[in-house]
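Quick start: what a row looks like.
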Amino acid sequence: MTDLPDQIRITEEGPREGFQIEPGPISTQDKVRLIQALALSGVPTVQVCSFVSPRRVPGWADADDVVSQLSSDTATRFTALWFNQQGIDRAVRHRDKLTLIGTIHTVASEPFCQSNLQRSLAENRLAMNAQCAAHRAAGIRVEKVSVMAAFGCNFAGDLTVDDALSAVADGMQIADDSGEHISEIALADTMGWANPEQIRRVVSEVRSRWPEPAIRLHLHDTRGLGIANAYAGMCCGVSRFDTTVGGLGGCPFAVRESSSSTSAGRSMPPGNIASEELVLLAHETGVDTGIDLDVLVEAGHLAEAIIGHSLPSAVLRGGSLTRFRKTASARSAS
């Protein structure tokens, strides 16, 4: 038995994910070009940048310039990522262009928290309490709990369902202590450890314990199971997903040994599931996305031209089925 949703909503994270890991340099104008092309496809939300330290993530040193050049005359919502007060301050300066939603970031793995956020889980709880207060002072509602490494970790190894539930519980407690109402729980397979059965177990347990918030999946295709995991989530009724056009990007802090990757991002394993692959899956199973797949594929080819190498998406290679169906229909009519 499946519980496929009638519609899924995709948050396109290609610009933010991809341009933080590509060696570059990638011009501000090219970043804006890709964001605008994605908006033309009908993607409802695009996460356009990270407001983070340019020393740690030099690919987003121009985040303010990119956002300032975006058109506000679009149905697509533009969002951004930040982790501290400096990031909040920068985001607030772009209220006219960005939809600002506060997120409580928790982690299911202690060593990954140390690697990615440079603090312990206990320190992260304190930081998230302080960040909730900072969001409130800035007039930003905190609506989301996001759990990194919810399904496994290159640093800690296999994680249990209880590890994921504990991380969600931490985030919900922080929200409760701060007087915030959480409408969404995001579960991230940050390093590509999930399998479909694990997706079903974790999603069902989270939904059983916290039935009110919507569940979002942020899936990586590191070992080729990303789309299978997305389908497992859809069969559990999950209707919100993060994706990246072409499979652009990945987490630059996910690899334990620095020698196993290079600074030339393209040699790293695939990152997020490809937007066009999830859209194709949804459309072929009767699930609406509101996205024009062929326009999205063209945006994927633009992304490849900008970064100067191919992306892992199979749909970018094979295309959609639209023209084949039109050809077959024309032959039948004749």
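That is the whole record. The longest helix spans residues 121-137. The chain has 13 helices and eight strands.
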